Amino acid sequence: MLITNTFEVSQPLQRVWEFFGNIPQVAACLPGAAMTDDLGNDTYGGHVGIRMGPVKMQFAGKAAITERDEAAHRIVIDASGADEKGRGQAAMLVTARLSAAGGATKVVVEQDLQLSGAAAQYGRGMINDVNAVLLRDFSVNVQNRITAIAEGRDPDSVGTAAAASGLAIGLQAVRMALLRVFRRFFLPYRPATS
């Protein structure tokens, strides 16, 4: 499943690009994630924990930078892991493209996500909604950590991203799903223009 999200960081392009080259620092911005082992050759071991409804999953795995294009400000990360209780697996190819947007930086994140086991039981809409909530929190954490670094403060002084809360994510995802249904059935039809 391909998921694309876009957000802006109010910092210059080069500063954000340097930040994205540090995978443990980037992972600290994703709720429930941590890269704990440097395995060499731009490969890291770590874990991601998430709760979706009654299912709490803790994935242990690896993330590796497979492409880094300095001129185009594009980075590709291949991540995969398995639930520590054997209830599923996840694999994701993440491509981040950065571009200048005035004095800020526009970040486009494409995720090619493959799930199996318990995590795969959720529909595409729910997975997209949960992903949107996580990416929104991720973008706020990226902004806070880069700002701390730019101001000469320890980025850990702004804290690491809290574990992804099932209730909070679930409520926000349900809200997003209800808005989709409301728009589909109650807003006027607008045909596509050519």
Short summary:
With 194 residues, this protein is an alpha+beta fold.
Description:
Helices cover 31% and strands 41% of the residues. The chain has 194 residues and is α+β, with helices and mostly antiparallel strands. Strands 1-7-6-5-4-3-2 form a seven-stranded antiparallel β-sheet. Strand 2 (33-40) and strand 3 form a beta hairpin. Helix 3 crosses helix 4 (166-186).
Q: With helices defined by DSSP (H or I, 4 residues minimum), what is the helix count?
A: 4
Give the overall pLDDT as a whole number.
Answer: 79
| Proportion of strand residues | 35-45%
The tally of strands reads: 7
- Kindly state the percentage of residues in helix: 25-40%
Strands of the widest sheet, in order across it, are 1-7-6-5-4-3-2
- Structural shape: globular
Biggest beta sheet attributes: 7 strands, antiparallel
Structural class: alpha+beta
**Uncertain stretches:** 161-167
What is the string of helix and strand elements?
EHHEEEEEEHH
